[in-house]
Amino acid sequence: MKIQVINPNTTAAMTAKIGEAARAVAAPGTAIDAVQPSFGAPSIEGHHDDVWAAAGVAEQVRAGEAAGADAHVIACFGDPGLHAARELSRGPVIGVAEAAFHCASMLATGFSVVTTLTRTVVIAEHLVLHYGFERRCRGIHGTDIAVLELDDPASDAYARILASSREALIHDRSSAIVLGCAGMADLCRRLQGELGVPVIDGVAAGVKLAEGLVSLGLGTSKRGDYASPLPKVYAGLAAPYSPA
C-alpha cells in the first residue's frame, strides 16, 4: 500500500518531520511518500495562506495519482483543498483535522483542541462546525506559537503546549486533547504521558484511517460532487492544472 502524505506548506524540514511521524505508525508493507507543493507559503497561518495551500495540495494529489498512490493524507490542520483533492482521487483522501476529530470523539465524550496562533482558532472553529463536531469539541485554545517556531528551542513550545493542554482540560471539562497542527506530531506521546488522557495527532490518525479504508477496498465516491472535475482549459497560472 502506498500513502501520499502531503505537507501543504513549502518547509522541507516540516515535511521530513511529518513523514517520520507517518512512518512511525504505518503498518508493515505501507510505503509513506511525504511530499510538499512546488509553490506556496512556508507555513499556513491564515486564510490567504490556505488558498495557496489548497492549490498546492491539488498539484500534489495529481502527481500522487499518476504515481499510483492508494490514498492521500493532507497534513495541515486546516485540511486545505480537501474536497478538491477528493474530486481528483479515486482512493481515500483524509484531512488530519477531520481524522483527529473522529478519533477523539470515539475516545472521549468531549475534547479540546490546542493549536498554534490564536488567529487560527476561528478557522478551527469553522472546521468543527463544518464536520459536525460542535457537540464534542468543548474548546479551542491558541498558544501563540508560530508554526515555524515549534522546532525552535527558544520558543519553549513543548512547555507552552503542555500548559495550555492542562488548562484546557480543566476549563473545558474535556477528557482528550487534539493537537491543532501537523507540526506538533512529534510531541504527541510525551504529552499523553504527562497529561494522562488521550492526545490525538491528526497525522497518525490520518495514516491509520487511510490504511483501514484502503484495506477495506473503499475509495472516494465518484458519484455526485466528488466526481472527477469537468474537463476545461484553465487560464494563466492555472493552465498546467487544467482537468483532462
From TrEMBL:
Gene3D superfamilies: 3.40.50.12500
Pfam families on file: Asp_Glu_race
UniProt cross-references to PANTHER family, sorted A to Z: PROTEIN DCG1 (PTHR28047:SF5)
UniProt record similarity statement: Belongs to the HyuE racemase family.
Protein name (database record): Aspartate/glutamate racemase family protein
